[in-house]
Amino acid sequence: MTSTDATPGRADAHVPLTAALAALLALSLFMAVAALAGTVPSPPHDKLPFVAGNIALVVAALVVVRGRHRAAPWVAAFAALSYLPSVGPHKILTEVHAAALTPVIAVGTVSIAVVWLCALALWRRGG
User: Domain limits of the chain?
Assistant: First the structure.
């Protein structure tokens, strides 16, 4: 999908924003499945409502971003912010299974950063 409001010579921030949100969605879905299957490491069952909340927020963000609504940067940034407790960089130091979860933490942290950078780019352009 090409942008109808893209400036020539500028990259469309909606594309990497959508990809980063999709990566966060995939992480949440796999965390939920791992918790329900009882694999180690996985989030404890009492954290599944938080994972479900993350899934709901990122799906809402994907809908708003793909619809190119002017609230897209705000919704996407809020959704990414909700992932910090789950996959933020602090998990390397605080997580018992940090070695096994390093790929998840790395992908999550980079995805959060990409969402915020794209949101900033969209804010600067006015949506």
Answer: 14-125
